[in-house]
Amino acid sequence: MAKISLVRVDFRLIHGQVVAKWLKQTQATKIIIVNSTLAKDPTMSNIYKMATPANVKCSIVDIDTFVAAWEKNQLGEGIALILFKDVGTTVQAWKKGFPLEQLQIGGLGAGPGRKAVYQNMTLNKEDAAMLKELSGGGVKVFFQATPEDKQMEFEKVDLNF
């Protein structure tokens, strides 16, 4: 059974902040990216794997493979940092059986219909509704860009769109 050190939603997935800060903070020995589109794209998968430090394993899997790995052996050995690109995929994994206890929102990008709810982190109405569902289901949802930032609880952000 792997120790899950962090479950994060970050539309950029593996980037400087994750490599330089979160890997150091969590001491993760592997990164698991859960994204069905990316799992089917060997070129982009290789780019993310090349962005991962040499001493850290990187796996890119679709939702069903991820949930099956959880059910089989709780993601194997080591310390896992799990990355989702979007809230919808996270909720799907949770509904399919991944026992999510805490979820960190790191970044969801900007765009039409999105509102900055904490620092530069944005939500749209759909994201907010899904996070409410997770929170109501007992998942601790919080916003935090870097380890130096204070966690902001989901319940304390302004969701008036």
UniProtKB/TrEMBL annotation:
One of its GO terms (molecular function) is protein-N(PI)-phosphohistidine-sugar phosphotransferase activity. GO terms for biological process: phosphoenolpyruvate-dependent sugar phosphotransferase system. Pfam families: PTSIIB_sorb. It is found in: Cytoplasm. One of its GO terms (cellular component) is cytoplasm. Gene3D superfamilies: Phosphotransferase system, sorbose subfamily IIB component. SUPFAM superfamilies: PTS IIb component. It comes from the Bacteria. Keywords: Cytoplasm, Kinase, Phosphotransferase system, Sugar transport, Transferase, Transport. The keyword Hydrolase does not apply. Signal peptide: none annotated. Residues 1-161 form the PTS EIIB type-4 domain. This is PTS EIIB type-4 domain-containing protein.
